[in-house]
Design a protein that fits this description.
- It contains twelve helices and 24 strands.
- It is globular, with a radius of gyration of 22 Å.
- A hairpin with a 2-residue loop joins β8 and β9.
- Helices cover about 25% and strands about 20% of the residues.
- α1 runs parallel beside α12 and α4 crosses α12.
- With about 525 residues, the protein is of the alpha/beta class.
- The chain has two domains: about 290 residues, 3-Layer(bba) Sandwich (FAD/NAD(P)-binding domain); about 180 residues, Cholesterol Oxidase, domain 2.
Length: about 525
């Protein structure tokens, strides 16, 4: 029965940041628990191997049938192992829009306005371009320009410019709107996960214990205070004690699952599973938000984009050899190499659609094998109005949670997505992308709202950004307060994307790391109080 000052549950983006910051000065005994492995292998480190990370590093969750998607079951990949989803994602470094955080403040999240969070983004970052008003250069998270983007990705940016859609070389700077190449969480041609930044440099410190392949069964709560964590490792169950507190960083699906297994959540739902209610909190597992996304795809006569033809396969083999030798070339691709943000609805306070351009044909989240060369263009609704839930399917902590994003339940979401898909096609039909000889794989009359809506409901799915299931707020119904402390119990904080009251306008890895950075400061402040 080991005892630590703090136990951090989950070694993903938020958990790596909070654990690393609490342990780095050596004054606290910190234990980091992670259900997966170390993720220290060539598949994880080589960016171009991202499509092949299928098994041990991915929970591979599914949703319940989605009525807004013609009853289809959606796919929800989530990172498993140190680094969490930062170990399997497309490495795109985006923080969201200034409006997002100012809106959080207006919603009652005191101290979370853009000017409050910007210093934490800067503190976390080691940007290749150096330090300026928006960026840092001394942090653990390396952020780099792409060293070998596909020429087709640059052509996409030029095609957008041909439509008077301005170029933007820094989506995290003075303005978000525009189109350009993304910066990535890479260092010298390798993936740089949150764990590589925050955990690996200090994992051998005597005050820092990292336990991988360790599954959390539930929190131990005595007298209204979290005192430890009950874990499984193989066939062995063990109780770990936390003198000062526990930080839950298991993500938007597993954090509410662990809370509910521990008796914190919707009372009626917990009783259905025979779980004693410690804190009746209906907001746990509610407010699920995710970026609904539609992927348009074109085959090309050109073999410059990535493809599975014989020539394309030989090029990729050569790229693998180059990457092993010099960490350069096509295997440094993040796949979502280019993209942009634009406003398609007149009443939007900020860009409402994001695009990810991939110089390859994607079908079924990349799981379907496609031989043809081509490119794909994701369009996602940045601030969806639909809300879903996460619930327990079983009292067994090893069982998957029941995930219902409730995609396209609100008609406003499909209206935004419809406009985004139409702009995707306008860009693809503009030069110089037209020089690649694109042929639409899913042709349709784009002027026909009903036909386009039917196609969207047939093919749309997540772009992998679930948030909101342990929302932050100043109201008593919120799960955590603005210092990320869980309401109703002592000694428990949450540091991951589940605390977002509303989804940010962009990719969620960088904001999750920022949340972990902030939580570490809140925990330290509680020590001193």
């Amino acid at each position: 029965m080991e005892t630590f000052d703090y136990i951090v549950i989950g070694g993903g983006s938020g958990g790596s940041a909070v654990a690393g910051r609490l342990a780095v000065d050596g004054t606290r005994r910190v234990c980091l628990l992670e259900a997966g492995g170390r993720n220290d292998n060539i598949l994880i480190k080589t960016p171009g191997f991202m499509p092949f990370i299928r098994n041990s590093s991915n929970y591979k969750y599914d949703t319940v049938p989605q009525k807004g998607l013609n009853g289809r079951i959606g796919y929800q990949p989530r990172g498993k192992g140190l680094g969490g989803s930062s170990a399997i994602n497309a490495m795109v470094y985006i923080r969201g829009n200034k409006w997002d955080y100012d809106n959080w403040e207006d919603m009652g999240c005191t101290g979370w306005a853009y000017d409050d969070v910007l210093p934490y983004f800067k503190r976390s970052e080691a940007n290749q371009r150096g330090e300026d008003a928006w960026h840092g250069e001394g942090g653990p998270l390396f952020v780099s320009d792409q060293c070998s983007p596909n020429p087709c990705s640059e052509a996409f940016v030029e095609s957008a410019a041909a439509l008077q859609l301005r170029r933007n070389d820094d989506f995290n700077g003075a303005r978000q709107e525009g189109f350009g190449l993304y910066q990535t969480t890479q260092r010298k041609g390798e993936r740089w996960s949150a764990a590589r930044g925050y955990v690996e440099p200090i994992r051998h410190q005597g005050n820092f214990t990292v336990r991988t392949n360790t599954l959390v069964d539930r929190l131990e709560i005595e007298g209204g205070r979290v005192t430890g964590v009950r874990v499984r490792r193989g066939d062995t169950t063990e109780l770990l004690y936390a003198r000062r507190g526990v930080i839950l960083s298991a993500g938007a699906f597993n954090s509410p699952q662990i809370l509910m297994l521990s008796g914190i959540g919707p009372g009626d739902h917990l009783r259905e599973h025979g779980i004693r209610v410690v804190v009746d909190r209906p907001a746990v597992g509610s407010n699920l938000q995710d970026h609904i996304d539609y992927v348009s795809a074109w085959e090309t006569t050109s073999d410059v984009p990535i493809g599975g033809s014989l020539k394309g396969t030989l090029k990729m083999i050569g790229a693998m050899i180059e990457h092993r030798r010099s960490r350069t070339g096509a295997m440094t691709t993040c796949y979502a190499e280019a993209g942009g943000f634009w406003t398609v609805m007149p009443d939007s306070p900020a860009p409402d659609v994001q695009w990810h351009f991939v110089p390859a044909v994607l079908e079924d989240h990349g799981r379907a094998k496609v031989k043809e060369h081509g490119f794909s263009l994701h369009a996602c609704v940045l601030r969806p109005e639909s809300r879903g839930t996460v619930r327990l399917g079983s009292r067994d902590c090893a069982a998957a949670p029941v995930i219902d994003p409730n995609f396209l339940d609100d008609e406003r979401d499909i209206a935004v997505l419809r406009a985004g898909v139409r702009l995707s096609h306008r860009i693809a039909e503009a030069p110089p992308l037209t020089d690649y000889g694109p042929k639409d794989r899913h042709p349709i009359d784009l002027d026909d709202d009903d036909a386009l809506d039917a196609l969207i409901r047939e093919r749309a799915d997540t772009v992998y950004h679930p948030v909101g299931t342990c929302r932050m707020g100043s109201d008593e119904d919120s799960v955590v307060d603005p210092q990320l402390k869980v309401r109703g119990v002592e000694g428990l904080w949450i540091a991951d994307a589940s605390i977002m009251p509303r989804i940010v306008s962009g990719n969620t890895n960088a904001p999750s790391i920022m949340i972990g950075e902030r939580c570490a400061d809140f925990v330290k402040a509680a020590e001193a109080a």
